[in-house]
């Protein structure tokens, strides 16, 4: 049965999560990394099926974004020297607040500890309340017996005042905004201890989440594993702008690994320490964020969760993206366009559109430089989870790298009409200055040339009034007596034909692993048992993302059928249709169950007759088709140029039940 | 002109290298990473064109190996805990010998310093010799004037004895075999100093080439960035074997980044610190390394450079791979099969088959456990360079991980017929032992059970002879007095139905970046200048690997033509044909030159008439074709199902010269 939109209780959700996890690990979509050595938290291998799903997701991403939006894709190293991440702010700010078990040294995320404590406490309050209402006066006793620890229960009962509850709820809601000292004070006030040992905890302090390393053998070049792929694009802005014919807008994309040395990763494949990102940096003139293709997507209706609805504690709302931009809920067309394109990409993959929403960052949640930011959140058994960020980062990144590197990362805009502009000219008379001030001429000239418009005009006025004017070089503190002949200052109207400016960046940033995990959950369902067989599970992946497109079976274990199946498999491979041959000799029913379990959409069975049987995974329908035509048919089904309904319209269904096939 | 097989002088080679480098960097195939910060040695970004070439190379690799050979592809993290790389040997042995400038701390590879010194010295000898022969008695003077340093020249002349020359040649040839102390002694003996400063150098010492990092916040879990992708496959052997139906042979593959913290990288893109590898681990029964598809490749003629030819200082030889295996030059069919498949892959990419050879490792060069090893070497301006290693690594890796992890990484083989086997049984009588030795019973029982066959039979004999026998537990040194009733030792014939064994591994390992660089050189040529235009350069990439397949131009800058071109581009994109629209308004000749320069094989020009012009890159031939048919045509050309000759056979050539087109 599909999990679909049916609301599940917490117990059902947990059971569902475990069932999906077991299936994914049994069939090697995931393998906990270094399993034979006990594993390392936060690392997963993609086994054969998971690896192929990722390849398909990335290929679709390339087609959907890089090709269809005509972007530049580039690939940069993961090892990054410190200077780059100093400029981007990661060295100083890419941190989480951590507390340590004071005796054992184990580390915990401070906010997680507080969150867990509050969530659990509030749940237990509700439990006691329910029981008390059910049998007043007895409830407390029930709890005591249940927990078998009178004191604990008493303490909790005592805490159950409306004021306390409100305080806890407020703390839970405000969790993300606490500073380190605030978090520390809360942890102390609630008496939270190390969950492993009950020991006291240290005060919270920031832990930098980048994996650190040394580049080269000298020990003098500090490096980090990149925390995102974006910086590689920013530092190459100049070259990419040039290759784009010095035109805006243009976009560059990068797919690759990124790293985050989580303090204590949990939430399985949703929070890992090494992951694949796919990021786009769309560079645009800050004065014109319209998008020529926005009209193509304006009518899409998408669940949005704007700031207003969040602060009013309301729910997300379905909205036409065109309206959202028009009403100013989404800041501009380009940002709206990428939200819509992201929606189309995710739903094409197989993400359930009713469990996908775009949540706007609250004002205090957004980086100070960001113009607007929307997270694509997907609902899964871990809750609503951020899987894509769509941010208008304004000119922040390019300006930061300009300042740090000294290289201007700007674009040039030619005006439609030349504009009149007042232009200031400051010309120190170096000959006169040199005669008078000797070796100080250079520093004095440079200082004069660096004056602001206001300073220059004030000096000009003073020089015209007095014979001698005292001028102070602010960097050295030296003072000089200037006369009128020593510097020419003038201002005049000039025609300006264009300007240099720092482009804004719109950044859609995809966490591929999180999207994949949500996809697994959204595609997963269980199928009632065939008599005599256990219940089977299925992934209803769209063919385009399914790990392989087709299995090929001989009907039974015979040399001649194996050979026929092998030939069929080779033909599919030559046509570029990924496929798996299964000549294990298991029963047909079991073999179908095994391919359903990994979500292979089509199965071809060869037998002694002419032609073959093609079976579709979800309907379990079968058609008979000539072995000449079947390769093209499955190729078209696999690449989406045909759907199964086209097949059943053309070919007659074969009415063989799957258990019969085994007889 | 093609570089092809024409032997170039050293100066020509250097000039060619610079020309290729400039083209690759100007058109952003490569961008030195973090360029605006001055760059970091050993890191390159792939700009748009390079990135697309890499994607195409990897897709072809997947089709050629993973799909056609039915392998399991998996993906593991790069961050690896120390225990895994301790088992593999990398923590102890993945080192280069390094020397330090004793004053400045700069680091150098010891072998490179010696090699550079010897190469240069020998060259200068030759130079002096040539000059002396040309004008006896004057040569020395010429050199002095040239170098403007009499003393230096004198010293070199003095060195020019036949004995000295032979010594230097021998040292150069034996470079790879020197130990650290030997290298140190040579550096001292030749008086080699720091090339940067002339300072003294330290003794050579091993520097581990792995990038080191810490996993998690505690500082107690040492990790490294993986130096190869192979280990991720080995540690997952059990699961992959199970998913393969517990059958051998099977193969797993992995594509991903690997890291090598080079001491002082030079040789540009051929020696970098972060690179993409594509590795295959083919697991096979050590008693049967035949390959069912070997017959399909046996007739291929490939340049091989066997051990015998190398030690005899002869050249590589063209050989039928079938003969090489039959004669025992290549150890076994499976290894031979992968050599042949590697050859087919590389030549399909566009590697010149006459500049590709497989060189066998010399006995002293090969790891002690390896059965046989052949490097695919490709000739480029850096010389013959290892780009792929094909090794039979025997059971080494699986045994190493079995020993370290305690998990048996073995396969099971069912015998065709049950075999008679002597089976030893050791049963300690725990009750009696417990009574006698109390808490020591456990360690004693374990020790008894762990006896070898010889030890057990000796003990049995002794117990039958004497009343009491002294038994020593070797791990603790404790001694115990045993009697006959304390342990039952027996041996009898049993039917054995199968055996567990550790599979052998055949490993083809591809350095994708090196292959790509060689591909660039092999595809590069210069084209005589069109009058009025500078000389242009071209990459003759096969369509399958070309960064994009097609450019689309409007004949001139007109709104209606731009729209028409855009429509054509969208149609190609929908059909999955990567393409670039060029509406820059440059002259047609310039636009052709720009697409030739990045190796785009086809260009479509739209004009005011019905139909479009398609132009092929290398022949510069053009045909006229309807705009309906052109998409399919270019798609077929791009995926290789059609070649240009098929087009010219079907469509009439248009005789427009490219300069005319601009008029």
Structural summary, described in words:
2 copies of one chain form a homodimer. By secondary structure, chain A is of the alpha+beta class. The first copy, chain A, has 4 domains: 10-90 and 211-396, BirA Bifunctional Protein, domain 2, CATH 3.30.930.10; 99-208, Herpes Virus-1, CATH 3.30.40; 417-500, Signal recognition particle alu RNA binding heterodimer, srp9/1, CATH 3.30.720.200; 531-662, Anticodon-binding domain (Rossmann fold, 3-Layer(aba) Sandwich), CATH 3.40.50.800. Chain A has 25 helices and 29 strands. In chain A, strands 3-10-11-21-16-15-14-12-13 form a 9-stranded mixed sheet, sandwiched between helices. In chain A, strands 25-24-26-27-28-29 form a 6-stranded mixed sheet, sandwiched between helices. In chain A, strands 4-9-8 form a 3-stranded antiparallel sheet. In chain A, a hairpin with a 5-residue loop joins strand 26 (602-606) and strand 27 (612-616). In chain A, helix 5 (110-134) packs across helix 6. The two termini of chain A are 28 Å apart. The relative contact order of chain A is 0.09. The mean pLDDT of chain A is 90. Chains A and B meet through strand 2, helix 2, strand 3, strand 4 and strand 8 of A and strand 2, helix 2, strand 3, strand 4 and strand 8 of B.
């Amino acid at each position: 049965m599909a999990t679909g939109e049916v609301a599940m209780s917490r117990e059902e959700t947990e059971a569902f999560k475990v069932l999906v996890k077991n299936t994914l690990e049994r069939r090697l979509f995931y393998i906990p990394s270094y399993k034979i050595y006990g594993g390392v938290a936060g690392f997963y291998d993609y086994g054969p099926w998971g690896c192929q799903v990722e390849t398909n997701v990335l290929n679709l991403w390339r087609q959907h974004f890089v090709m269809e939006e005509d972007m530049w894709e580039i690939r940069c190293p993961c090892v990054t020297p410190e200077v780059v991440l100093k400029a981007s702010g990661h060295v100083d700010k890419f941190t989480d607040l951590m507390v340590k078990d004071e005796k054992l040294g184990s580390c915990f995320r401070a906010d997680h500890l507080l969150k867990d404590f509050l969530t659990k406490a509030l749940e237990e309050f509700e439990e006691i309340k329910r029981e008390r209402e059910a049998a007043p006066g007895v409830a407390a006793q029930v709890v005591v017996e249940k927990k078998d620890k009178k004191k604990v229960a008493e303490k909790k009962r005592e805490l159950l005042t409306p004021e306390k509850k409100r305080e806890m709820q407020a703390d839970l809601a405000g969790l993300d905004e606490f500073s380190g000292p605030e978090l520390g004070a809360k942890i102390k006030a609630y008496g939270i201890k190390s969950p492993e040992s009950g020991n006291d905890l240290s005060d919270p302090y920031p832990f930098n989440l980048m994996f650190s390393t040394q580049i080269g053998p000298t020990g003098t070049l500090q490096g980090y594993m990149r925390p995102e792929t974006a910086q590689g694009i920013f530092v190459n802005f100049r070259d990419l702008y040039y290759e784009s014919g010095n035109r805006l807008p243009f976009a560059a994309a990068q797919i690759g690994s990124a790293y985050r040395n989580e303090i204590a990763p949990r939430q399985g494949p949703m929070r890992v320490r090494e992951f694949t990102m796919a990021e786009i940096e769309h560079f645009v003139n800050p004065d014109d964020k319209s998008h020529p293709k926005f009209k193509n997507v304006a009518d899409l209706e998408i669940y949005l969760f704007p700031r207003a609805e969040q602060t009013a504690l309301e729910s997300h709302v379905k909205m036409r993206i065109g309206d959202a931009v028009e009403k100013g809920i989404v800041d501009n067309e380009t940002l709206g366009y990428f939200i819509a394109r992201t929606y189309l990409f995710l739903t094409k993959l197989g993400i359930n559109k009713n469990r996908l929403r775009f949540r706007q960052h609250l004002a205090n949640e957004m980086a100070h430089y960001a113009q607007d930011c929307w997270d694509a959140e997907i609902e899964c058994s871990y809750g609503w989870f951020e899987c894509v960020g769509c941010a208008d980062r304004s000119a922040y990144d390019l300006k930061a790298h300009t300042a740090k590197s000294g290289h201007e990362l700007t674009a040039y805009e030619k005006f439609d009409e030349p504009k009149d502009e007042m232009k200031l000219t400051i010309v120190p008379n170096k000959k006169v200055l040199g005669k008078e001030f000797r070796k100080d001429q250079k520093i004095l000239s440079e200082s004069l040339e660096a004056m602001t418009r206001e300073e220059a005009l004030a000096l000009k006025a003073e020089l015209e009034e007095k014979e001698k004017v005292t001028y102070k070089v602010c960097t050295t503190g030296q003072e000089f007596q200037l006369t009128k002949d020593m510097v020419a200052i003038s201002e005049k109207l000039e025609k300006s034909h264009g300007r240099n400016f720092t482009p804004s960046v719109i950044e859609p940033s995809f966490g591929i692993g999180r999207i994949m995990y949500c996809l697994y959950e959204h595609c997963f369902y269980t199928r009632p048992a065939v008599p005599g067989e256990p219940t089977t599970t299925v992934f209803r992946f769209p063919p385009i993302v399914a790990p392989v497109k087709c299995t090929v079976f001989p009907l039974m274990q015979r040399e001649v059928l194996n050979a026929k199946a092998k030939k069929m498999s080779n033909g599919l491979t030559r046509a570029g249709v990924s496929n798996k041959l299964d000549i294990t000799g298991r029963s047909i029913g079991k073999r179908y169950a095994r391919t359903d379990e990994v979500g292979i959409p089509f199965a071809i069975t060869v037998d002694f007759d002419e032609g073959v049987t093609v079976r579709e995974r979800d309907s379990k329908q079968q058609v008979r088709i000539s072995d000449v035509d079947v390769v093209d048919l499955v190729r078209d089904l696999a690449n989406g140029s045909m759907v199964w309904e086209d097949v059943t319209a053309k070919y007659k269904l074969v009415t063989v039940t799957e258990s019969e096939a085994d007889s």
